[in-house]
Amino acid sequence: MKRRIRVLLSAAASAALALGAVSTAAAPGAYAAPKPKEPVSYDRYVALGDSYTAAPLVPVTDPAGGCFRSTNNYPNQLARTLGVKTLVDVSCSGADTTDMTSPQQTPLGPVPPQFDALTPDTDLVTVSIGGNDENVFGTLVGYCTTLRSTDPTGSPCRDQMRADAGGDRLMNATTRTRARVDQVVAQIRQRAPQAKIVVVGYPQIIPTSGTCVDRLPLADGDYAYARLINQRLDAALKHAAQSNKATFADIWKASKGHDVCSADPWINGQVNDPARASAYHPFGNEQTAIAELVAGKLSPATA
Question: Where is the signal peptide (predicted)?
Fold first, then answer.
């Protein structure tokens, strides 16, 4: 997503600043995830991730540092639900796996590596990362959407990606991302050995059938290809959780029927909504669903 995300974040920054850096459309408690049946206590919770964790423009968004984290993203909702003593949310819009261990350049300047937040006494970590690696998601929403005019009923994006001599460019990238995400989770285990680690998957963005070019202007034949890439990114996170004996929060399954084209979408379409969500990013209801799902994973029977 790097180049495309920078464009979206610039728009998000303008929207956030135009609203005085804070949207009043919803108070911090407006998106309240249901409490687990039995309370679970955590002292230090570190949230790692990209914009699908930061949730830019979900009210109330804090533009500080250029990460555009919402105070109602799923880490904040989860922390309130669990009564966490200390939440350290270092998720950042535009982050990829390299930003776990290296400073990230945001529209407002550099931010420290996300792993700097991990400490030996951290007892809960959530992580969702990988969509921005090699600009995979950004290629889909920032480049492939521009190709529809060249072949509206065809698959110009898929055809271009498969024209490389080395094979499908995006498919190959997701294969490499899988290995990097696996290393991210392994390193979390090393840096926070006492922590419960929950790997949060990606939601279903692309529908199983049909199109909605007003929201997602891909060529008709590219919808299935984009969904495959979307699914492979989610599968990379699931594999990382399994291979490192971490807990996996299956938002892919939970988001069935809530793709960008649905009647009840969890993901915004191509237009920034300053009061609800950045373009191609989660709405508040998706963040609430994740918080609820993760809270369920942390009940005494499963924690």
Answer: 1-32
